[in-house]
Amino acid sequence: MCAHPRAHAKGIYIFMIEINNLVKKFGKKYALDGVSFSIKKGEIVGFLGPNGAGKSTTMNIITGYISPTSGSVTVGGVDVFSEPMKVKKMIGFLPEQPPLYIDMTVWEYLCFVYELKGCKMNKSAHLSEICELVKITDVKNRLIKNLSKGYKQRVGIAAAIIGGPDVLIFDEPTVGLDPKQIIEIRSLLRALSKERTIILSTHILSEVQAVCDRIVVINAGKIIADEKTAKLSEALGQSNRFRVKISGPSREVLNLLKSIHGVTRVTQDGAREGDAFPYIVEYSGSIDIRKMMFRALADKGWPILAMEGVDISLEDLFVKLIDGEEEKR
Ligand code: ADP
Ligand code: MG
Treating both helix axes as pointing N-terminal to C-terminal, what angle do 123-134 and 149-161 enclose, rounded to 10 degrees? Predict the structure, then answer.
């Protein structure tokens, strides 16, 4: 396969990573069905999708560990399939299951990876610096098999950044970690993101919001959204929903709320509190339904006890994106 046409002969390239129309079939099943996106130098991109969406398959293809059925990938202007060794040198990869040698100590393993990558730096200084950065200095003489999941994950990250690759590809780096470890890995990712290009896959939505500049959403082997995180977050703020607590018979209240012009959806949200029930009311963009709601409920003698706006979570947005995609099919 030849270099991508936009990759200049002298190695001048527009995107650090360019993924073009990747298709991957396992038997008759399409794991990837025309995946394309590009990543600029220095970007930190969240690759978000539910289990089985195709995240690991995409990452394994970008890093040259498996080949696609069709499509192309360039990293730093270099074609992954024609020059896999060159590309592998540019990438630090944390696979979904890092291949740790559990009978080695942390330091032995890092030395092993250092040799494997054919690094030509000051070994001891380089590895010590990485241990500091990843905060594993205090366990460097321990056997990997005796480490907690969080520490094992850090050793995997340490191995990935040996040799100082410009591009980091981390497949679900926080899976199986506890909340404290997740926060630590997040701040580590932020520290690493300076001057590096990072793709980080996750099925946890708050993760990408916390760390990434941009979010690429994949579902069933297709990209269904590709947005700046700030833009997505902005959209999240413009919620057309509120939570309202109303004292009155729940079924009738529900029906009344649904009958108000502009209301698109009403759900009961939580348990009875005295003679009141909480509801989530969604309404279409331009109409302010609050006055109508007040009048309708006052007519019935069902007082509103509380009312507050609800921000759309990324979870909701994600479900919407997927639903939207399914409706188009
Ligand atoms: P994700 O990482 O988003 O959870 P994967 O990329 O691992 O998803 O998988 C995408 C789809 O491809 C899934 O349906 C999965 O079952 C299938 N798949 C992945 N690897 C293989 C394989 N080696 N053989 C057969 N099917 C596979
Ligand atoms: Mg995966």
Answer: 140
Cβ atoms of 149 and 176 within 8 Å: the answer is: yes
15 and 173 Cβ atoms separated by less than 8 Å: no
DSSP-derived 3-state class of residue 108: helix
Beta sheet of 17-26, edge-to-edge order = 29-39, 17-26, 70-75, 78-79
What is the tens place of the pLDDT at every residue in 292-307? 999 999 999 999 999 9
- DSSP 8-class letter at 288: -
Both tokens of 323, joined, read 């639903």
Under-50 pLDDT residues of the chain: 1-10
Nearest ligand to the CA of 222 is 1
- Ligand 1 pocket residues where CB is under 6 Å: 26, 31, 49, 51-57
Query: Distance from the CA of 55 to the center of ligand 2, in angstroms?
Result: 5
Which of helix, strand or coil describes residue 169? strand
Q: Is 12 helix (H, G, I), strand (E, B) or coil?
A: coil
Residues contacting residue 231 through CB under 8 Å, at least 6 positions apart:
none
Closest C-alpha to ligand 1, atom 27 = 26
User: What is the amino acid identity at position 146?
Assistant: N
pLDDT in tens, 136-166: 999 999 999 999 988 999 999 999 999 999 9
